[in-house]
Amino acid sequence: MVNVAGGAGAQPSRDELMEAITSGDVTQRVEAAWELHLPIEGMRRASEDTHVQVVESLLTNIEVPEEIIAGILQKHPELHQAVMSHPNAPIAMKEALPMVWHTALTLSRYADQRGWSQEHLEGLIEAANALPDPFTTTLGQLAAELDPPR
Questions:
Q1: Residues 129 and 73 in one domain
Q2: 112 Cβ partners below 8 Å, 6+ apart?
Q3: Quick check: 108 pLDDT over 90?
Q4: Span 42-52, pLDDT tens digits
Q5: Helix 14-23 × helix 40-47 angle, to 10°
Q6: Of 43, 53, 86, 133, which has fewest CB within 10 angstroms of its CB?
Q7: Are the C-beta atoms of 34 and 11 separated by less than 8 Å?
Q8: Cβ contact 20:32 at 8 Å
Q9: How far is 13 from 3, CA to CA, in rounded Å?
Q10: Does one domain contain both 11 and 54?
C-alpha cells in the first residue's frame, strides 16, 4: 500500500507520489495528483488517468504546467470549465471563459502571460468587479477593452 498522506504534518516524498500515481488505487492517485511537488511525469500520468476523479484532482494543483493543462481538454471535454479556469491554462482558453469563473490567481497569471504590469492587472480586476453580468462577459472581451497599446 502506498502511503500518500504520510504522518501528521509529513509531506510525501516525490518517490512516494510517483509510486501512488503509477501503482496506487484511485484514492491514492487522487491524493497524489493534488500535491504541489508531484513531479512533471506524475502530472502527465495523472492527466491521462482513466478515472476522471484523478484528473479533476490534478486540476486543483496550481503547479501543473500549461502543456499538460491544454492536453486534458481533448480527453475530458466534460472538465472544460476546470481546465479553462486553471491558473496555467493557455491564454486562449482563459479568454474564452466568462469572468465569473476566474479567480485572482487566474487573472494574475493571465496578466503575466500577457506581459502586463501590476497596474494593468489591477485595472482588469477593477473592471471585472464592476461588470453587470460576469456570466456572459468573457475574459477575452474584457481584456480587449483594456489591452494597452503596443
A1: no
A2: none
A3: yes
A4: 999 999 999 99
A5: 20
A6: 133
A7: no
A8: yes
A9: 10
A10: yes
